[in-house]
Amino acid sequence: MFYRLRTDFRLSIITLLGASAVLGITPFAVMRFVQNDLLAGLVDLFILLGIVSGVLYAWATGDTRRSGLVLAVIASGGSVAVGSVVGEAGLFWLYPCLVTTFFLVHPRVAIGLSVASVLALMMIETAFSSQIQMWSFATTAVVVSASAYVFAHRNHSQRRRLEHLATIDPLTGVKNRRSMDEELDLAAANAERSGLPYALVLLDIDHFKKINDLYGHGVGDDVLNDLVALVGSHTRWSDQLFRYGGEEFVLLLPGVDGVNLRAVMNNLQQVLRKHLKHPGGPVTASFGVALLGHGEGVGHWLDRADHALYRAKECGRDRIVYAEEADSPEPDLASSDPSCAPG
Length: 343
Fold this sequence. Notes:
The chain is α+β, with helices and mostly antiparallel strands and 343 residues long. Helices cover 66% and strands 10% of the residues. The chain has helices at residues 2-7, 9-34, 38-61, 64-86, 94-104, 107-122, 131-167, 177-194, 208-215, 217-233, 258-275, 298-314, 323-326, and strands spanning 198-205, 240-245, 248-254, 277-278, 281-282, 285-291, 320-322. A five-stranded mixed β-sheet has the order 2-3-1-6-7, sandwiched between helices. A two-stranded antiparallel sheet has the order 4-5. The chain is elongated.
């Protein structure tokens, strides 16, 4: 429970605001029922039930966007209902509701709800004692909404930037392992649904430690960036490259198998052989390739590609090994490179 609150910002906001609303509204609901003000009491009760339902839905499904929108609508609509039923005393509820919506939904949506709430209250004559009070209320509500918008917009931009940084490798600019896990899960789900083939390539730069030891980590970093640039310029926009760790990368290839997959891999290997260099000469890479099997889990899929990469390294590096061959009792590794004997 506390882990989810620490790691899911929107869920923590929904929970905090939901708890605050329940603690703040419950005494008034009880008081109104005690005072026999049934209509106002029922309005408060429905608002409470809506807020509790929204919070429970967010916890049960993890769908914080939809539940946040529902809670924002309840907060805005509830404040209008309270203002129309209670009158002047109920107008004060709109201010916390205006601020709350900016934490629950996108700032543009919150602006729309805020404007709609203020206009709705202004159309209810019984909510205000005079025109001056109505326009004073509208002006202060606009100021509060504008301030909340500026804060929420900046917060939204900063959060998106942090989320972006959390999924990108800072050195090479490609997606990192965290992002890879999400994309592989999506690929496996899409393959089950559509039957589209997916190939997973585990790529490892040969003798990378020697490059770092002889020429320094700056040269090693240049090699990594050059590899990313070469792979990016010789693959499709739908292909995705991830930095798996160190000098290892994962390439996700949707929609290729059989002869087409071998053609893609042979071309990529030749491109790296020709263009990837360091001060001591050309740099090569080893490849482990695995096609996603029907009903196969992502972990097993990745393990098969890793085993194929291990076989490529074991057989002398600068080779492509396909998991379907490496996993067989007598893998036909010669089909990938004649110099690599089975075993």
